Backbone:
């Protein structure tokens, strides 16, 4: 059986026979102009060209937005929230009770993540986040969604067979653990509060935040 064990730190990517495509397969060395961009890339490019020609958008402003979400906003924001919750029980309580307000306390609430619900992973409950309709994702806390998150395979299978999907990500849960799948919408986005790794109790907030991965906050990885 094919599996796609998550790369803990970066853009881990499921691949193989499970219907997911490698998100990084065209990155790095070996990129030639003979490669035909995907249909969606061509459509986006065409749309961008038309809107630019009609002076409805400024390409420089667009670049700034892309740069912001690619390089400045990312899972490190979510990791800060998680590390704070691990070290401050009062904050954790506020976070689970009213995610939006608690995230706003850290100045990390923003567009595409205005209404946030934080769900806690425990020994008894494992939470998994998906957007079955499209690709709603908490941008201000996790950055841009990974390609596999947007794939139709993940969007459908996460709901139909979550345990199997989790297994393919390398997450093997005992039968006694309940799996809860949260379907994101434009109005409501979810962040998983992962379980703190064993043996990390002595670390401070900054050190703990380095242990938190994007995938653990989507629910497809256990730290
Ligand atoms: Fe969506």
Residues:
């Amino acid at each position: 059986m094919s599996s796609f064990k998550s790369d803990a730190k970066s853009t881990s990517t499921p691949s193989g026979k499970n219907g997911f495509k490698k998100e990084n397969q065209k990155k790095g060395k070996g990129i030639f102009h003979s490669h035909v961009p995907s249909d969606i890339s061509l459509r986006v490019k065409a749309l961008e060209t038309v809107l630019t020609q009609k002076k409805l958008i400024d390409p420089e402003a667009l670049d700034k937005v892309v740069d912001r979400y690619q390089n400045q906003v990312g899972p490190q924001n979510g990791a800060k929230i998680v590390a704070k919750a691990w070290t401050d029980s009062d904050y954790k309580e506020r976070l689970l009770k009213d995610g939006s307000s608690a995230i706003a306390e850290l100045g990390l609430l923003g567009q595409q993540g205005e209404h946030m619900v934080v769900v806690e992973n425990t020994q008894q409950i494992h939470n998994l986040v998906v957007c079955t309709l499209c690709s709603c994702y908490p941008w201000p806390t996790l950055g841009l969604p990974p390609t596999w998150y947007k794939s139709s395979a993940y969007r459908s299978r996460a709901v139909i067979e979550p345990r199997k999907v989790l297994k393919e990500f390398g997450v093997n849960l005992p039968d006694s653990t309940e799996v809860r799948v949260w379907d994101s919408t434009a109005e409501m986005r979810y962040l998983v509060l992962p379980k703190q790794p064993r043996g990390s109790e002595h670390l401070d907030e900054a050190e703990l935040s380095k242990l938190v991965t994007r995938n653990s906050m989507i629910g497809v990885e256990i730290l």
The mean pLDDT is 85.
